[in-house]
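User: My collaborator sent over this chain with a note saying "see what the structure looks like." That's all I know about it. Can you take a look?
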Amino acid sequence: MTGYGIAFMGIAWREVLRFARQRERFLAALVRPLVWLFIFAAGFRSVLGLSIVPPYETYVLYEVYVTPGLCAMIQLFNGMQSSLSMVYDRETGAMRTLLVSPYPRWFLLGSKLVAGVLVSVLQVYAFLLIAYFWGIKPQVLGYLTVLPALILSGIMLGAMGLFISSAIRQLENFAGVMNFVIFPMFFASSALYPLWRLQESSTLLHDIALANPFTHAVELIRFALYRQVEPVALLVVAGCAVGFFAASVFMYDPSKGLWGRRKGG
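Assistant: Without extra context I'll predict from the sequence alone. Here is the result:
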């Protein structure tokens, strides 16, 4: 167990150092949601009316509604950023060195996943701190009850990034894949507008958003921020997290997944 602990701390410390040396990554992670919060939300406030929907007990401003979705957006981009680092490590040979260690592959990938989630949680809390001074003030206990939701949603989105990274063979292809994954997941969800409004405009779009795992990550964070649990979102996010991580472990198996296909080719 001591060896496992040392290995985990080494992987986590490497991710923290990488994040600390890339200050522009931290700023970029905050700029995107802050632009939506300060500019787009202010413009949409008078256009998009919101009815009283759980977990809100009264009418809320549009910027209050989009805040949980912007928290999930930070984690979505961080998950994709972590997958980018996996592609980079594969090209430089660092990942191959990691995967040939005597520790199980699930433990190595899980350690990297958890380290990335910790970084994303720090980014989300920094965003919530700024949002607090903008007037978005959930109950104080909400900042504690949202932590498990942030960890679980971060694991799901990070595991999805791991799975995507296993299919990307060149760093140059990553930008296109990011746009293909991030923007449809973000816009076809309940991050920016409630599902009932989507259903009013398009039943098909509503069904797509309802089947989108990112929607359930947003709702899990939204309810947790107001000290409530959304059971359907919890089950979907937990199930997708397990599924994406299992698929990532399979794809990084040298005899079955990515490396096996390369040798076979």
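A starting point for your reply to your collaborator: The two ends are 38 Å apart (CA to CA).
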